[in-house]
Amino acid sequence: MKKILLIITICLTVCLSFPQQVWAFCGFYVAKADTKLYNRASQVIIARKGDRTVLTMANDYEGDVKDFAVVVPIPVSVTKEQVNVLNPKILERLDAFSAPRLVEYYDYDPCAPPLPVYKTQEAPGVAREGGARSDQALGVTVESKFTVGEYDIVILSAKESQGLETWLIQNGYKIPRGAKELLSPYIRQRMKFFVAKVNLEEYEKGGYVNLRPIQVAYEYPKFMLPIRLGMINSKKEQDLIIYLLSDTGQTELTNYRTVKIPSNVDVPEFVEKQFGDFYKAMFTRSYEREGKRVAFLEYAWNMSWCDPCAADPLTPDELRQAGVFWYDPNGPSDVFITRLHVRYDRAHFPEDLRFQNTPNQELFQGRYVIRHPFRGTISCQAGKEYLRRTRQRQEREAQTLANLTGWDINKIRQQIDFVNVHGQVEDTPWWWRKERPERNR
Amino acid sequence: MKLKLFVDPRDYQISFLIFFLFLGIFNREWSLSFPYFIPLIVSCLLTQFIGDNFDNINQKLKELLTRERGRKSDLKWKISGLKSALTTSLGLSVLIRSNSIYTLMIAGAMAIASKFIFSVEGKHFFNPGNFGIISAIALTHNAWVSPGQWGSDWFYVALFICTGALVLNKVGRWETTGAFLVTYIILSCLYNYYLGWEWDVVLHQLSTGSLLVFAFFMISDPRSIPDSKIGRITWSILVAILAFVLRSFFGVTYGVFIALFVLSPLTILFDKIWTGQRFYWPISQEVGSELTVVNGGRA
Fold first, then answer.
1. Is B154 on the interface with A (CB under 8 A)?
2. Burial (Cβ within 10 Å: 0-12, 13-18, ≥19) of residue B9
């Protein structure tokens, strides 16, 4: 539409605070007491170049920190130098940078369109120990043991799952039922177990409010993320946001299909106030339409720029913190981010996630458009046509929204402020009327 | 000449591959579409034409250079190879991915050129499509294969098996695919059992559309595989073992393609050890108004 000119780009970060309280993670939580441990939406950053991987795991753990413990299978043993804790801000920055965004346009007076005025609106915030002797008998080897930040970390290798389970129980970790069977495949693949719990002394010394994300660096050809252990405690669907950083291009799943989230669609104005709800409803509907078996691509972009920007691109220092070990500030920017959203459960995601970095430079973003109709006084006959077309457009937007979210079309219509097609056109007296409205003043 | 379709197994292959392309683009939301696939197909056909008519083209060029125009030439242009090139190009389109049209054209040209370059006693031993994929990935760093692009839906599993079986039935060399799949399935199941995963894990691994497309539409190419039955079976088993090892133990995403590429030259050796009747695609000949198929189908 000619008369629509771009004014504002508001970028809303989607609230990822999914309501269901579930157990989730690449590994599983093991409580030291019978405390209920919860984790809502896991977020993982994987920076990978060649065989080198930097894996960052974050969670919304809300229980008592003294009860926090996590077991994650990793392919190789790591030492203290390879483990780090990350400033949670980096994750928020990545989230904000890559989140699906809402874009707003204002229609101009169809009779006398003024020059576009650019104004920005602030984006709302993100919605969002054991003895050596018994170890040997159990076939469990403590590969290394160290403290990083607020975490006490033990790297274990095991010969069989029963031994590992016994070791964990003896050392005060409460193993979820059914863990033994799931530990076995990882042991047989000769994977190690990264076990972390909170060192209360360090935690109190640091004065942290929340537990910080843990970062592990290792070198291994297989590019995978274990999700099966996280399914032990819950048959419910769990949400996982994966930020994949590569030096080549998009990262894709090799053992599940990746689908682009619906994007670049016009939605009614009121969605601005309910963007979080809209996105969640749309995601759920897309997920169900695809038979719950796919991962969704929410963002794929070169990290040196963005358009429109949901947040400023990460600084070189932030990128390095996020795990981009290859970043060279003097060289060309070669960091590509892929944001995948996986909603998984046991029935539909039986296998751990496997990835590959591809040279695919195709850009993609989840982008939703609001077009505000001109609501001033219509002072020419051409305005009538504008109103008629706008009314049709609003109806199309309502249908799009109903189709994307599954919301009731009538309720959607009720919330739309439709333009009045039969409104009176205020006639400009003939002696002031111009032949053509001035478009460029 | 009266056009008689579906005598040649390649007619089936071509129709199914076109159907898969449409499904991929419209149902699986591939990012690539016809503007990418058409240049790839054209590059395959052109390379085939040049390869088939190399001497003629040479002579034509000489004529042009020596300005001996006007002389009526009785050159016979060979176009019978184009159907194979079309099959290869469609197979490539279903598998290879790139942001660059040039990369796809290179893949197409390399695929067909390999038939003329790597040939022993008139038989090429690299699978053309596979050669195109590997060379594009290695040479351009701008191509990839998306093994997850089909997902593991039952509809696609059934579709690939049914259409693949139909083509194999026409070609008559089903044991290649059979031996490959049986070996791969057995190894996967054994490994799955050893690791202690549930059965739906291995089922999910095996029902991936890309594996089936490879098994039914790539490895089965009857022209580049060993001539004898025993040779084909042994060769397929080796490809399956290597593919499985590469994927499961070394995390190589393109395990099947690399396995096929690495083991393709074994075809020459196996043909020396076990002799068998070579496969030729049916050549349509006009006899009166009847169309006959010469030396095609089952070997």
1. no
2. buried
